[in-house]
Write a structure and sequence with these properties.
335 residues, 16% strand, globular, 13 strands, single chain, alpha/beta
């Protein structure tokens, strides 16, 4: 079987720091290679893969801002679609734009919908319902207007996350700095809990950071910048809990699964996919407001960190994800 994996071109695949879609695309590609599948990865030129790499740019447009994102995206997608007949199946991890080619080629396209940036993009997905082969990354993140083949949870390379049963006495916020992700709420939870908070992640909203986050930084509330993979593992593993007070219906939440792989329980606002990722009072706590989160901080000591690790390893491993996708590829090709 010859499979083409289409990754985004915002960041390198896999990403150096931030880039969840790129990370999933990489995990799929490298996981398939372990199963002796012939894999071609369409990504940025500096991407790392054991398969064949095809690119139209040296770096992603977020790392080289001299490039026009839309122009680069069009060149990148067409680079694959013009050679579509070379592959048995195309796995699209690039949102809705590649779908516009799907009725023009004979190679089936399976699309992982990593989330909806806006309801306005749904008509594109809806137009290609009959040929789209859509996969959701959680049952919560589905549109009633679309037809889905399956739900496949994002899978992580569990070797990159070390279990730690002896955490330090700090809380962690790990993710992009943006109102949607609840950075300011995490600070409020930490202050009310009288606990140290370490904040790590990409500053996606500069004004929000300058206005709501930076003025509160001190010896108790520390911002460490974006975290390299080794630093990520250390921060997640040593935290007593991950705070995830999101204000939107998050489709998945990579840091939630990553934390639990390290044995770290998660305190999250009960929105979107969180009830699918977290087993309430077993691997963390699902709460609805800040005061409930503060109470959960006090109860984290009752969570068995080994249970967090076991749950995440069973549900969110790259091996499970790749196996699920390979079964879908075969079912599509059988038709």
């Amino acid at each position: 079987m010859k499979v083409a994996i289409l990754a985004p071109v915002a960041w390198r695949t896999p990403p150096r720091h931030y880039g969840p879609w790129e990370q999933v695309a990489s995990n799929i590609a490298e996981g398939l290679l372990k199963l002796d599948v012939d894999v071609s990865l369409f990504a940025t030129g500096d991407s790392v893969t054991g398969g064949k790499l095809f690119s139209v740019c040296d770096k992603g447009y977020e790392e080289d801002r001299t490039q026009d994102a839309k122009v680069l995206e069009c060149m990148h997608i067409s680079n694959l679609m013009e050679t579509a007949s070379d592959f048995d199946i195309i796995h699209n991890n690039f949102d809705f734009l590649p779908l516009t080619y799907s009725a023009l080629i004979k190679t089936p396209v399976i699309t992982t919908i990593h989330g909806f940036s806006s309801p306005k993009i749904i008509p594109v997905y809806k137009k290609y319902n009959a040929v789209g082969h859509y996969v959701s990354i959680s049952n919560a993140d589905r549109s009633s207007e679309l037809e889905y083949l399956a739900t496949v949870y994002n899978g992580l390379d569990t070797r990159h996350f070390e279990f730690n049963n002896n955490p330090e006495d700090y809380l962690l916020y790990f993710g992009r700095i943006h109102p949607d992700k609840g950075t300011a709420e995490a600070i409020e939870i930490a202050k009310k809990s009288k606990r140290k908070l370490i904040i790590a992640g990409l500053i996606q909203d500069e004004a929000y950071f300058k206005d709501k986050i930076e003025p509160q930084l001190n010896s108790q509330i520390e911002y460490t910048g974006n975290a390299e993979p080794n630093r990520r593992n250390e921060l997640l593993g040593k935290a007593s809990a991950l705070l995830h007070p999101i204000s939107f219906n998050e489709p998945f939440g990579m840091s939630v699964a990553e934390a639990m792989l390290c044995g770290t329980p998660v305190i999250a606002f009960n929105k979107g996919s969180m009830p699918e990722l977290i087993r309430h009072e077993e691997t963390g706590f699902l709460v609805n407001q800040i005061n409930e989160a503060v109470e959960a901080v006090e109860n984290v000591k009752y969570i068995k960190r080994k249970d967090c690790h076991s749950w995440a390893s069973d549900m969110f491993s790259a091996e499970k994800m790749v196996d699920d996708y390979l079964k879908l590829y075969h079912s599509i090709l059988a038709k």
